[in-house]
Amino acid sequence: MTPPEGAEAHFRALESLYAAAPINRFFESTLEIPESGVARIRFTVDARHFHAGGATHGTAYFKMLDDAAFYACNSMVTDRFLLTTQFSLLFTRPLPEGPVVAEGRWISGHRRVFVGDARLVDADGEEVARGTGTFMRSRIALAGLPGYRTR
């Protein structure tokens, strides 16, 4: 099989970078970038993610929405790691145990600041939360990050 090149290589390298992030030992999840400006994160909510009231804690919502919007935007940038500078959340319903998908997409920006949004969808296809963020190009080279492998 021929190794991916160009945009495909960048997308696979971002997926590898995501998998290598230490935080994902606490949030077992997978990232897929099917095309430029789009990212999906799949994970399963269980009781470890619950607050004292027995429902999913907001940290899980934030993590998945921020990551989905972030990677949708970083799929548009091949040289630098982006940083979240702002993120707003809207919780629309409780998130039960089970599989969940965070769907992120790039909205605007091409040079220094990018805007992305994401929605969190439960196993029944219901949207449970939505978020919008801004992401700024950093001085951190993607090629120098552990996990970012284009070949």
TrEMBL record:
Keyword Ubl conjugation assigned: no
Keywords linked to the UniProt accession: Hydrolase
Keyword check for Hydrolase: yes
Any one GO MF annotation of this record: acyl-CoA hydrolase activity
Name of one Pfam family that matches: 4HBT
InterPro entries per UniProt: HotDog_dom_sf, PAAI_dom, Thioestr_dom
Domain Thioesterase: 53-129
UniProt protein name: PaaI family thioesterase
